[in-house]
Structures are given as C-alpha cells and as structure tokens.
Amino acid sequence: AKDSGKDCIVFYQPEMSDLATVRLTYESDLRRALRERQLQAYYQPKFDLSQQKIVGFEALARWIHPEKGMISPGVFIPLAEELNMIDQIDAAIMAQAVKDAMSWRQAGYDLVVSVNVSGRELERGDELAQRVEVLLEQYALPPQNLQIEITESVLMELTERVQQALNALRGLGVSVAIDDFGTGYSSLSYLKNLSVDVIKIDQSFVREITRVREDQVIVRAVIAMAESMGLSVLAEGVEAEEQCRFLRKEGCHQIQGYWISRPTPLEETFPLLREYDNL
Ligand code: C2E
Ligand code: CA
Ligand code: CA
Ligand code: CA
C-alpha cells in the first residue's frame, strides 16, 4: 500500500461507502475531536549536520480517535480544509507546540518548534501574526523558538496579503520555512520578493538520492542557491545513513526523517534529546 511506510493507518477509505456520508461522519467527528482534545501534536526532530545535534522539532498533527485509533493527517487535513476547520486545527496544534516548547526550555533545551500552517490562513493577512503574538506572550516563549512552515504551492501565487502575513510573522521574530520545496512547479521568482529563512527540500528528491543522478543535481543546485541567498537548507525524508552522508558532503545544513526518528509524542522526545547528547 502507498502508506505502508508511514506510521499511521489510514481509515475511512472513500470506497467503503458513499463519500457524502463519510464527510458527514467526519465533520461531526472532527468537531468532537477538537472539543475533546483528540488531536495531538507528535514531534519529529530536525538534526543539524554540522552541530551534530537536534536543533528543533516539527509538530505533526495526529488524530487519536477513541475507537478508530490513529488517523493520519494525510487523511484528515485535506478534509478539514474542505470543511473550513483547518484554522481551528492549526491553532490547536500551534497552542500545544508552544506549550510543549516551554517544557523543553524548562528541561534546559533551546530548540525551535515548527508548525504547519495552511495557506488559507495566510490569505487573511496579519491576523495569524496577531494570534501568534498572543500565544507567545501567554507562554512566555521567545519568538526565535517558533517557526512556521508553509508549503511552496501557497507561494506560487504570492498575493500581497500572504506577503503581509509573512512579513508580520518575521517582524515578530518568528522564522519561516518553505515546505515541500521543488514540488510547486513554480517559477523561482517568488524567492526574490519573499523573506524566508529556511528551504525544506521535499522528500521526493531525497528518496533515491544515492542512486538517481537527476535528484543529486537538483539537490546540489538548491543547496547552492540557498547558500548564496543566505538561507538554511533542510532535507526531508532522510531514511538511511547513505542519504545522510551524501547530504552532509553536499553541505546541506539540517536533515529530518526516520533515520533520526519518526514523529513521537512529547515524552519520547526527551530520551531522543539525551541520546543525541543535546546538552
Ligand atoms: P509535511 O509537513 O511535509 O510533513 C512531513 C511528512 O513526512 C510527515 O507525514 C512525516 O511523518 C513524514 N515523514 C517524516 N520523515 C519521513 C521519512 O523518513 N520517510 C517518509 N516516508 N516519511 C517521512 P505526516 O505526519 O503524515 O503529515 C503529512 C502532511 O500533513 C504534512 O506534510 C503536512 O503537510 C500535513 N500536516 C501535518 N500536521 C499538520 C498541521 O498541524 N496543520 C496542517 N495545516 N498540516 C499538517
Ligand atoms: Ca511540514
Ligand atoms: Ca514537507
Ligand atoms: Ca508534504
């Protein structure tokens, strides 16, 4: 199956019944999930190749359904977008991530937590930055400890509002990463007008990087471009040591992937941090 490599089981397959019925069930289930806190942030480490340590975690939403078990975001995020519930989900995960970032700080770790934000939220201009500011104050988290990830496809049509939203975030001191870089089929011209901090190379370029020459050429070019623009580069989906070795040799700054760790609940991040001798 397509998702066999993932850490979640996919439920609610559309072919199981009429799609409309499935959506209805979903909508009320999702509302309940938000109310009853069934949505949980799992954390996947970002490993810095020169410092040789974990420098941050990405928060990834998991729906722990009381009867159906864990549902993958690949299933419920697109539906939540359709049902206009994505903002609430993103807000819930962000609140959890900021709160959890404080428990890392209290344990003595200085880490960046990153959260995924749906493009539609950015279309509303600096509203997001205002909410982020309130949240950071509430938990007394320094803005440098928070990062926002936006998929490249959002930046393809870089409207003034999106630009405004990103500038407002960076104005607070929060950093911005472009997610799934290379999959947007976009012209690179948006990079000229946009202030971002990190480029995340999509895992489709990393998967076969030790064998496929074209992937190697693309990854090299992205690293060179990022370097000359003063951006940091992270490679996603690193599953094996050879991929890690290649990326290190090419000067990639950070990696993320099963090779370091799968996404885990907060409690399991502490043994990981100890394992990588982070303090
Ligand atoms: P993404 O932001 O590109 O996240 C990376 C995905 O790749 C995650 O899938 C992660 O578990 C998976 N992954 C990490 N390392 C490896 C690896 O070495 N090999 C492979 N094969 N996969 C790896 P996940 O957690 O299922 O999330 C899927 C997507 O759902 C995310 O892609 C993101 O776009 C979206 N998502 C997750 N949480 C949220 C959220 O809170 N809000 C929004 N708006 N979107 C979210
Ligand atoms: Ca992401
Ligand atoms: Ca990605
Ligand atoms: Ca993705």
Describe what you observe in this structure:
- Helix 5 runs parallel beside helix 7.
- Helix 8 links the parallel strand 6 and strand 7.
- The protein has an eight-stranded mixed beta barrel with strand order 1-2-4-5-6-7-8-9, surrounded by four helices.
- It contains twelve helices and nine strands.
- The structure holds ligand C2E and calcium ion (3 copies).
- Ligand C2E binds next to strand 2, helix 2, helix 3 and strand 6.
Low-confidence stretches: 1-6
- What is the strand content? 15-25%
Number of strand elements: 9
Biggest pleated-sheet summary: 8 strands, mixed, barrel
| N-to-C CA distance | 40 Å
Hetero groups in this structure are: ligand C2E, calcium ion
GO molecular function, one term: cyclic-guanylate-specific phosphodiesterase activity
Domain EAL: 23-277
Protein name: Putative signal transduction protein
Organism: Magnetofaba australis IT-1
